[in-house]
């Protein structure tokens, strides 16, 4: 199968996931302006980790995870933070890509859909961004923290909403986590920034 065929399959799996889970389709409609944009692949350590150790899935999330595993070598994997900010161990066990959005493999200006992977034993420090964000867990689990709300452990099919500029953080323990994240509102192309202590 061609890389574009793999991307189309992954997008179809994500669309089905979005339609099946009420928090996702309530958060934002499925974009109707999607256009495939070829991008040069970029590999990170997470490129292989997502294939061999994605964490526990559910019957609903398994097709999405498997689509991303097949797609992983063709993705433009990214790192938001520097070694000075989060450390080398974090960077060796973390990565994300923009499936759809202003700078995604599919271009849309209606939302941003990213996928993030964090390996076990990582502390993702407090950060924030203008856009509202809905995390949906595809596999694994982690402790989610956000200012003003109780901490929660989330696993596959669970969701977590972060409001505009609401500082939030995440910790993985024995399991990795793979997330599908929807953004809406202002600042779709902005990068998160670490929050003040």
Q: What does it look like?
A:
This protein has 197 residues and is an alpha+beta fold. The chain has a single domain, classed as Jelly Rolls (Sandwich), CATH 2.60.120.10. Helix content is 26%, strand content 33%. The protein contains six helices and eleven strands. Strands 1, 2, 3, 4, 5, 6, 7, 8, 9, 10 and 11 form an eleven-stranded mixed sheet that branches. A hairpin with a 2-residue loop joins β6 (132-146) and β7 (149-155). α1 runs antiparallel to α4 (62-71). The longest helix is centred in the first third of the chain and has 18 residues, at 3-20. The radius of gyration is 15 Å and the shape is globular. The protein starts with a helix and ends with a strand. The mean pLDDT is 94.
Secondary structure elements and their pairing?
Blueprint: H1 3-20, H2 22-27, E1 35-36, H3 45-52, H4 62-71, H5 83-86, H6 88-92, E2 94-101, E3 106-107, E4 112-118, E5 123-128, E6 132-146, E7 149-155, E8 159-162, E9 168-171, E10 177-184, E11 193-194
Parallel strand pairs: 2-3
Antiparallel strand pairs: 1-3, 2-4, 4-10, 5-9, 5-11, 6-7, 6-8, 6-9, 6-10
Helix pairs in contact: 1-4
């Amino acid at each position: 199968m061609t890389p574009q065929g793999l991307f189309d399959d992954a997008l179809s799996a994500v669309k089905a996931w979005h339609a099946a889970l009420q928090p996702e389709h309530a958060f934002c409609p499925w974009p109707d302006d999607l256009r495939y944009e070829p991008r040069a692949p970029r590999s990170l350590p997470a490129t292989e980790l997502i294939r061999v150790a994605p964490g526990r899935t559910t019957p609903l999330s398994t097709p999405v995870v498997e689509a991303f595993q097949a797609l992983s070598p063709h993705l433009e994997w990214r790192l938001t933070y520097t070694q000075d900010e989060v450390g080398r161990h974090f960077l060796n066990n973390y990565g994300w890509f923009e499936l759809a959005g202003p700078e995604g493999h599919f271009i849309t200006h209606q939302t941003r859909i990213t996928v993030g992977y964090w390996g076990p034993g990582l502390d993702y420090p407090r950060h924030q961004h203008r856009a509202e964000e809905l995390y949906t867990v595809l596999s694994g689990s982690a402790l989610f923290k956000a200012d003003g709300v109780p901490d929660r452990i989330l696993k596959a099919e669970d969701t977590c909403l972060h409001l505009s500029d609401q500082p939030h953080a995440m910790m993985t323990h024995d399991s990795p986590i793979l997330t599908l994240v929807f953004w809406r509102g202002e600042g779709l192309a902005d990068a998160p920034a670490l929050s003040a202590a």
